């Protein structure tokens, strides 16, 4: 480069840097960047730098940095700092099975323990999940440094919300139970990266909501299933799914897993929440007063709560759609209801507690709760 051109190049870099500082100041004022917002900038500082400064490595990693990682928001919050332990293993896989784990979990009742469950079934299931891929939710396709997730609950607040595009703009979309998509694309999007369930909630959803459009579990090449262990049924179904055989015993005996999950039987398609993770979540975030009542052994956080907290422990930014809000009475129980139905507070869940938790996490800037 000759002298005047080098000078011009430096000027351009300086301008670009100022532009970048201004942009950072501007976006710091916003708690969360909307997923679609970035794409709407006519020319972003990144694009400007890419045009002028030939350093693709640098600009690439810059663009993927998180402006508001939830880990930072947790550190800044006195209350939540003491609850979150982002090092807690989220998934159970073969590499984590030890005699100590068995001794510990077999002394605790389901859903958080293995009391009364067959060790043989559990070990033979975990031996199929014995690859480091089974320890991770996100595979090789994950973004370098900012994983942005949307968790879509089934709440009536989504009816008419027109959030579909925003939901689909996230890197990963979590759905659960009776996640009806057809006919509601504009409101809930179409992308599904993870589907979370217990065998009981999945099968109940297929029965209860089939006339409302939930005729099959979401399927797809890039879709992963998150089994929430709540009894021996999940271990048996998971094992049969990977082996590609009918469930051999128990209440689901004879079920063909491919009718739920599709033809692919590869182990990487199936993830299993760690029972210790569920216990940690329940003790720290969702310790319900129901634990002191006759509903104690029935109490369990909702599937939606478990999926949202799973996302909060694995993603860098999380938006929650279709979760209970303080004005829930304005909306139907589910977005796919035909007629307005009040939200049902089942005695095995504690929706009031969950509502307070989501509001608290939203106010602390740890998640973005969709409200209207
Ligand atoms: C967080 O969890 C990890 C893994 O279970 C554990 O080793 C660590 O001691 C925990 N940290 C705190 C502060 O509890
Ligand atoms: C099992 O481990 C958990 C923590 O990892 C601990 O709180 C609990 O007391 C242990 N239970 C038994 C029966 O050892
Ligand atoms: C997982 O693989 C390791 C190493 O091959 C083996 O020692 C271990 O027993 C396996 N775990 C299970 C649960 O099969
Ligand atoms: C869904 O929203 C539409 C308007 O957008 C409304 O007419 C309908 O009653 C709502 N459905 C339920 C079940 O609340």
UniProtKB/TrEMBL annotation:
One of its GO terms (biological process) is protein O-linked glycosylation. The gene is St6galnac2. It catalyses: a 3-O-[N-acetyl-alpha-neuraminyl-(2->3)-beta-D-galactosyl-(1->3)-N-acetyl-alpha-D-galactosaminyl]-L-threonyl-[protein] + CMP-N-acetyl-beta-neuraminate = a 3-O-{alpha-Neu5Ac-(2->3)-beta-D-Gal-(1->3)-[alpha-Neu5Ac-(2->6)]-alpha-D-GalNAc}-L-threonyl-[protein] + CMP + H(+); a beta-D-galactosyl-(1->3)-N-acetyl-alpha-D-galactosaminyl derivative + CMP-N-acetyl-beta-neuraminate = a beta-D-galactosyl-(1->3)-[N-acetyl-alpha-neuraminyl-(2->6)]-N-acetyl-alpha-D-galactosaminyl derivative + CMP + H(+); a 3-O-[N-acetyl-alpha-D-galactosaminyl]-L-threonyl-[protein] + CMP-N-acetyl-beta-neuraminate = a 3-O-[N-acetyl-alpha-neuraminosyl-(2->6)-N-acetyl-alpha-D-galactosaminyl]-L-threonyl-[protein] + CMP + H(+). Its EC number is 2.4.3.3. InterPro entries: Glyco_trans_29, GT29-like_sf, Sialyl_trans. Pathway: Protein modification; protein glycosylation. It is found in: Golgi apparatus membrane. Keywords: Disulfide bond, Glycoprotein, Glycosyltransferase, Golgi apparatus, Membrane, Signal-anchor, Transferase, Transmembrane, Transmembrane helix. It comes from the Eukaryota. Belongs to the glycosyltransferase 29 family. GO terms for molecular function: alpha-N-acetylgalactosaminide alpha-2,6-sialyltransferase activity. This is alpha-N-acetylgalactosaminide alpha-2,6-sialyltransferase. It is a single-pass type II membrane protein. One of its GO terms (cellular component) is Golgi membrane. Disulfide bonds join 149-315. PANTHER family: ALPHA-N-ACETYLGALACTOSAMINIDE ALPHA-2,6-SIALYLTRANSFERASE 2 (PTHR45941:SF5), ALPHA-N-ACETYLGALACTOSAMINIDE ALPHA-2,6-SIALYLTRANSFERASE 2-LIKE-RELATED (PTHR45941).
């Amino acid at each position: 480069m000759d002298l005047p051109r080098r000078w011009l190049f430096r000027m351009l870099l300086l301008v670009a840097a100022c532009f970048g500082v201004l942009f950072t100041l501007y976006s710091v004022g916003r708690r969360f960047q909307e997923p679609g917002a970035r794409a709407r900038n006519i020319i972003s500082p990144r694009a400007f730098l890419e045009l002028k400064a030939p350093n693709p490595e640098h600009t690439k990693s810059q663009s993927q940095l998180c402006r508001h990682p939830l880990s930072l928001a947790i550190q800044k919050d006195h209350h939540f700092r003491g609850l979150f332990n982002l090092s807690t293993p989220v998934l159970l896989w073969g590499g984590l099975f030890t005699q100590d784990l068995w001794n510990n979990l077999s002394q605790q009742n389901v859903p958080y323990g293995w009391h009364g469950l067959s060790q043989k079934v559990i070990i033979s299931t975990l031996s199929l999940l014995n690859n480091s891929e089974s320890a991770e939710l996100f595979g090789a396709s994950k973004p370098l440094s900012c994983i942005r997730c949307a968790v879509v609950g089934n709440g009536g607040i989504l009816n008419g919300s027109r959030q579909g595009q925003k939901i689909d703009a996230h890197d990963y979309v979590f759905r659960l139970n009776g996640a009806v998509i057809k006919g509601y694309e504009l409101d809930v999007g179409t992308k599904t990266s993870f589907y979370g369930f217990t065998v009981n909630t999945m099968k109940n959803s297929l029965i209860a909501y089939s006339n409302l459009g939930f005729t099959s579990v979401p399927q797809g090449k890039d879709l992963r299933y998150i089994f929430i262990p709540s009894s021996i049924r999940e271990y048996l179904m998971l094992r049969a799914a990977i082996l590609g055989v009918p469930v051999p015993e128990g209440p689901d005996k004879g079920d063909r897993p491919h009718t739920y999950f599709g033809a692919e039987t590869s182990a990487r398609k199936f993830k299993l929440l760690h029972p210790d993770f569920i216990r940690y979540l329940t003790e720290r975030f969702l310790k319900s007063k129901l634990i002191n009542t006759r509903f104690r052994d029935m109490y369990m956080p909702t599937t939606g709560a478990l999926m949202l907290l799973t996302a909060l422990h694995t993603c860098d930014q999380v938006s929650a759609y279709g979760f209970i809000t303080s004005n829930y009475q304005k909306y139907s129980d589910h977005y796919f209801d035909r007629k307005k139905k009040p939200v049902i507070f089942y005695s095995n869940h504690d929706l009031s507690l969950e509502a307070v938790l989501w509001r608290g996490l939203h106010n602390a800037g740890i998640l973005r709760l969709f409200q209207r």
